[in-house]
């Protein structure tokens, strides 16, 4: 350690004088600080110094004149302001520098995208990439063998054509999570931001995973279950163009090959579609089928032809042919949108006994459900039917999860009716796979979110799996009108005029007639729909609780559409019967005319009498048909008015 150097005599003298000077300055400062404002003012005048300013400024001026340092409060204040200005300037420069760097990055990124044929918004692209860097790593996929209901999501890759049109990949997948980065712009029209939605499913497949990976964790683990006598139903759901058909084709070929190689049973295949409430056989010249329920409660599809497949190649060819004759139609967003639900049913039989069953269901494009508010009646009816069937399917799958005592509303739609044995039984011999396919483009975010929300609701756990879920339909009663109690008239006041009493009675009678008519119309719809009415009510109530699709209104619209479809069937049947009866009457008329124009004599009175009978029969046939037509026309007008009301509500909801 260094020794302390002793101070010299000169240093000691300097230190002594410095201390004396500091003491003298301190004494002077104390004297000045102790002076009154009047003394300070007089002292400044004596020294010929300015007298303006505050008392503090005068004291500082007097200190400076006496060789003392003035108070540092002003200088500190001045220094603080300068520092603030310098800090603001520094931040401004940093902000400008950052803006220049961002601008340069945007230009460079834009040039790179243009070179690669991309045209997306580089700001949103950068924000999405930054968010993706924080997404947790992907977990291992789980096989579907241990799940009664397996809900998967598959994202397709973004196409080069889409990137050239300015599309951005706004979907991130990291099993079991899927994130939708919804691009938004604030009300100022400038500030851009992301609204991120996160969902968790049993398995999530990214665009980098092929059909073999999807099959490995979806259908393949269930092949032993099928061969053991179980029933597996696989649904493909999503927007048209999201990869449903690509996924289903890959799964079909792989599962068919595996089942054929592992089983010696005879394979039977049938393929039909459900479109607009009607059923058509896709492997039998699209012949119309009848969906009937026998005395034992079993659903029979009358006219459906089952074809035997000798090998897997023949079976796959039949499936491909069925897909090629499906009903499609161009929409505003897709040129070839599926308008129907296609059901491919593969049954494994030994000695005419089913030893395993697989159903592959390609659902209609989910965007078609939004056609409920279309200007075209045919599109509206199609959209309502698709929407209703998807809602019914959701409740049936949920019921399968809840257990054997849950109510299964399979009569809520034609599709769930024909798939009844996929949901009922409550045992371990039924399993369901739902594969929701989503498009990555940011312009499809709404459709992707709808698909994910639908799939998310399928996997919701019931609050009590062992509880009995009893369904009690609501009594069909007329709406209760609110009655306002009026105060009793005073004896001093004039009694109501007879005209007012008559007007009130007429208004009351009119209201009663309207209520009665509403009740009759509802009862008429209930009679037409039969047993399906209760299941529709059940589905309506369940979805009204979740506030889906504008609440109760759009669900009432489904009822009206179902009634129209039932009446359309009835009207067509009556029309055909009328033509047949008319043909029989026409034959009799021909015989009567031939008799009258013959060479022999004929009884003119008999001719007139028979002709009158034939004309009355004709009038009766067509009068009955005309009344049916008027009723159908009135219901079409009601549907038009209700649709306009729904459209207005939808527009108000978007504002």
Classified by CATH, the class of the largest domain is Alpha Beta
Count of runs of 4 or more consecutive helical residues: 18
CATH fold type of the largest domain: Kinesin
Give Rg in angstroms. Answer: 42 Å
Shape: elongated
**Fourth-tier CATH superfamily name of the largest domain:** Kinesin motor domain
In CATH, the architecture of the largest domain is 3-Layer(aba) Sandwich
- Summing up helix and strand content along with how strands pair, one would put the structural category as alpha+beta
pLDDT averaged residue by residue: 78
Distance between the termini: 82 Å
Low-confidence stretches: 1-5, 462-493
Secondary structure: number of strands: 16
How many separate structural domains?
4
Q: Strand share of the residues? A: 15-25%
Largest sheet: 11 strands, mixed
Give the % helix. Answer: 40-55%
What's a concise summary of this model?
With 655 residues, this protein is an alpha+beta fold.
Characterise this structure.
By secondary structure, the chain is an alpha+beta fold. It folds into four domains: 12-71, Transcription Termination Factor Rho, Rna-binding Domain, Chain A, Domain 1; 74-115; 126-458, Kinesin motor domain (Kinesin), CATH 3.40.850.10; 502-654. The chain has helices spanning 9-34, 37-46, 55-65, 73-115, 122-132, 160-164, 211-217, 223-227, 244-262, 312-324, 377-402, 414-418, 420-423, 445-458, 498-529, 532-546, 552-596, 604-654; strands at residues 149-155, 171-174, 177-185, 192-200, 203-205, 231-238, 266-275, 278-281, 287-293, 299-302, 307-309, 328-329, 337-338, 341-350, 353-362, 430-438. The two termini are 82 Å apart.
């Amino acid at each position: 350690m260094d020794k302390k150097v002793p101070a010299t005599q000169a240093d000691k003298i300097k230190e002594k004088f410095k201390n004396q000077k500091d003491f003298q300055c301190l004494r002077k400062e104390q004297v000045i600080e102790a002076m009154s404002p009047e003394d300070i003012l007089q002292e400044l005048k004596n020294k010929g110094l300015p007298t303006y300013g505050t008392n503090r400024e005068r004291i500082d001026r007097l200190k400076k004149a006496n060789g003392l340092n003035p108070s540092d409060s002003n200088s500190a204040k001045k220094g603080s302001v300068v520092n603030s200005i310098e800090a603001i300037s520094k931040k401004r420069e940093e902000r400008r520098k950052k803006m220049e760097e961002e601008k340069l990055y945007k230009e460079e990124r834009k040039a790179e995208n243009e070179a690669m044929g991309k045209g997306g918004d580089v700001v949103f692209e950068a924000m999405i990439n930054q968010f993706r860097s924080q997404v947790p790593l992907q977990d291992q996929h789980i096989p579907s063998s241990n799940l009664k209901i397996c809900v998967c999501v598959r994202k397709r890759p973004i196409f080069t054509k889409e990137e050239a049109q300015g599309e951005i990949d706004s979907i991130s997948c990291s099993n079991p999570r899927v994130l939708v980065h919804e691009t938004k712009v604030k009300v100022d029209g400038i500030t851009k931001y992301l609204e991120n939605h996160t969902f968790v499913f049993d398995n999530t497949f990214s665009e980098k995973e092929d059909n073999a990976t999807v099959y490995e964790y979806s259908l393949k683990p269930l092949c032993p279950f099928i061969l053991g006598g179980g029933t597996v139903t696989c649904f493909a759901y999503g927007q048209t163009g999201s990869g449903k058909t690509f996924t289903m084709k890959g799964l079909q070929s792989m599962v068919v090959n595996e089942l054929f190689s592992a089983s010696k049973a005879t394979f039977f295949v049938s393929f039909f579609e459900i479109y607009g409430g009607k059923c058509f056989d896709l492997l039998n010249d699209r012949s119309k089928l009848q969906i009937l329920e026998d005395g034992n409660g079993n659903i029979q599809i009358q006219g459906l032809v089952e074809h035997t497949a000798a090998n897997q190649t023949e079976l796959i060819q039949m499936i491909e042919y069925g897909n090629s004759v499906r009903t499609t139609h161009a929409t505003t967003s897709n040129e070839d949108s599926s308008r129907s639900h296609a059901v491919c049913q593969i049954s494994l039989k030994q000695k005419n006994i089913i030893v395993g069953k697989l159903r592959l269901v390609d659902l209609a494009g989910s965007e078609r459900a939004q056609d409920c508010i279309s200007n075209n009646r045919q599109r509206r009816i199609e959209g309502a039917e698709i929407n209703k069937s998807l809602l019914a399917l959701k409740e049936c799958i949920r019921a399968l999860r809840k257990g054997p005592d849950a109510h299964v509303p399979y009569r809520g739609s034609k599709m769930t009716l024909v798939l009844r044995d996929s949901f009922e039984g409550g045992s371990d011999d039924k399993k369901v796979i739902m594969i929701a396919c989503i498009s990555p483009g940011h312009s499809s975010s709404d459709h992707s979110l709808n698909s994910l929300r639908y799939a998310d609701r399928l996997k919701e756990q019931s609050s009590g799996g062992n509880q009995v879920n009893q369904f009690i339909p609501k009594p069909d009663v007329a709406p209760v009108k609110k009655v306002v109690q009026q105060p009793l008239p005073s004896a001093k006041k004039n009694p109501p005029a007879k005209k007012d009493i008559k007007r009130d009675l007429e208004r009351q009678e009119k209201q009663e007639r309207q209520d009665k008519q509403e009740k009759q119309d509802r009862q008429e719809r209930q009679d037409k729909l039969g047993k399906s009415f209760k299941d529709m009510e059940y589905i309506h109530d369940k979805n009204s609780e979740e506030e889906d699709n504008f609440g109760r209104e759009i669900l009432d619209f489904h009822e009206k559409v179902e009634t129209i479809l039932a009446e359309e069937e009835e009207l067509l049947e009556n029309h055909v019967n009328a033509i047949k009866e008319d043909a029989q009457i026409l034959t009799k008329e021909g015989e009567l005319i031939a008799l009258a124009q013959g060479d022999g004599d004929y009884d003119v009175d008999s001719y007139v009498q028979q002709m009158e009978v034939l004309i009355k029969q004709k009038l009766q046939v067509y009068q009955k048909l005309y009344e049916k037509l008027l009723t159908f026309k009135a219901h079409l007008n009601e549907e038009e008015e209700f649709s306009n009301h729904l459209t207005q509500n939808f527009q108000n909801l978007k504002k």
